[in-house]
Amino acid sequence: MLPLFIKMLPLFFKVLPLFIKMLPLFNKVLPLLIKMLPLLIKVLPRLIKVLPLFIKVLPRFIKMLPLFNKVLPRLIKVLPLFIMQLPLFIKVLPLLIKMLPLFIKVLPLFIKVLPLFNKVLPLLIKMLAHSIMQLPLLIKMLPL
């Protein structure tokens, strides 16, 4: 036991300054941790059940970290916009939930029609552009 202790001593001295720096933060967080302890005890069995899945997913998560680091700045930019829209989303959510069964029924039909829509879309865009170009002429013809 003593040789192991002697081996670990340099590591202990490396970590000690970091531990001392974090002590004030720990003192702030400790009351919160004590408050959360009953909840933690309640959730612990579930956490233990999920642990094997977490261990299974962890390598994939680590592989995706570089991508996440690229996307993170964009997410931070969009987050305030998302938060601003949250009240509206909460208002619309019950309606979205009600419409979900209908959406599931219509989805296969939509998937069947999508290739046809992709063929027709360029034509629709051309017609819209033509209509917009004709708009000044139509406005001139209107009796004022």
Automatic annotation (TrEMBL):
Does the record carry Signal as a key word?
yes
Cleaved signal peptide residues: 1-17
Q: Please tell me whether the keyword Signal is annotated for this protein.
A: yes
Q: Which domain of life is it from?
A: Eukaryota
- Per UniProt, which keywords does this protein have? Signal
Q: Which PANTHER family match?
A: DYNEIN HEAVY CHAIN, SLEI FAMILY PROTEIN
**Protein name listed in UniProt:** Dynein heavy chain
The species this protein belongs to is: Trichomonas vaginalis (strain ATCC PRA-98 / G3)
